[in-house]
């Protein structure tokens, strides 16, 4: 797998391999324009994992389909900038994107059974991806498929390479999808809720596998999920999305231990703690996510926020908050919220105490 090593050396260590700046993804529908992503910015370095978390409809998957160029060009308006190793993706032609997909960037989808063809063997599907991007012979592609199945932990890969997807368990199908995504040594891997349909033991195995492969190849990973428990296991950095916007981002420990945004706090309150008391009641976030046809003015979370009235002056419902660091936190840890640091310390502490008591 020398290709990855050769490519990886020409970008300065620590520099952003992927840079997304003010990305907007809007869809035209019969009912109007859906603002699926509305001004999103983030960066990702090689060898690091960015966890993107949020409820369904928050814009997580749409963001990454736009990065890969898998959106419907006839109905989608894109704006902003997406740079992959200095290459602008939003203005790239379909032919350019086809060369990049699978080769420089790749994606693991949630439903492996739906993503794999039932009419072709697993090995043939992995090998075809390899042949398309490298020009390898069928024999070379088969050998590569066996090698990749071995790397992702499939037992007897030289035998299972000729099996069909329905002959694999759910966890093994997901491993096969990972093998297909990594067969050309992509430098950016996007994993769209790849563990959602798996039991917790297989989930842990898949996350351990991704970490091991990342350490081996230095891959940059975007991991999309709605589960902060998964994020706590795999991500280096966290980006929290709500209503098509980033409401908080920072290092994993910072975001999960000391959240700055009420939505992040609500997500944490709605999941059980692995190291806290077992009898603490969960606190689901009231209400439903906003319509992106007619999103709320100001902070899009304010209709569901327990603290909006405490800010006063109707500020949350009229002014969009800036994404900025908070006093007492690192420059990398930022949130888009009108609460002052003093209010946050007071109200968030009360909220946490109410959960315990």
Notes on the protein architecture:
- By secondary structure, the protein is an alpha/beta fold.
- The chain has two domains: 2-116 and 170-241, P-loop containing nucleotide triphosphate hydrolases (Rossmann fold, 3-Layer(aba) Sandwich); 260-356, no CATH class.
- It has 15 helices and twelve strands.
- It has an eight-stranded mixed sheet with strand order 6-7-8-3-9-10-12-11, with helices on both faces. The chain has a four-stranded antiparallel sheet with strand order 2-1-4-5, covered by helices on one side.
- A hairpin with a 2-residue loop joins strand 1 (16-29) and strand 2 (32-45).
- The longest helix has 18 residues, at 200-217.
- The chain is globular.
- It starts with a helix and ends with a helix.
- Residues 1-14 have low confidence and may be disordered.
**Side-by-side strand order of the widest sheet:** 6-7-8-3-9-10-12-11
Low-pLDDT runs of 5+ residues are 1-14
State which percent range the strand residues make up. 15-25%
In whole angstroms, how far apart are the ends?
A: 54 Å
Quick structural gist:
This protein is α/β, with parallel strands linked by helices and 357 residues long. It contains 15 helices and twelve strands. 40% of the residues are buried.
Please give a handful of descriptors for the protein shown:
eight-stranded mixed sheet; ATP-binding; 22% strand; 15 helices; alpha/beta; 2 domains; ABC_transporter-like_ATP-bd; four-stranded antiparallel sheet; 357 residues; Rossmann fold; transport
List the helices and strands and how they pair.
Blueprint (H helix, E strand, L loop, with lengths): L1 H7 L7 E14 L2 E14 L3 E5 L6 H9 L7 E9 L2 E2 L5 H7 L4 E4 L3 H4 L6 H13 L3 H14 L5 H4 L9 H13 L5 E5 L7 H18 L2 E6 L2 H7 L2 E6 L2 E7 H6 L4 H8 L38 H4 L3 H4 L4 E3 L8 E3 L4 H16 L1
Parallel strand pairs: 3-8, 3-9, 6-7, 7-8
Antiparallel strand pairs: 1-2, 1-4, 4-5, 9-10, 10-12, 11-12
Helix pairs in contact: 5-6, 5-8, 6-8, 8-9
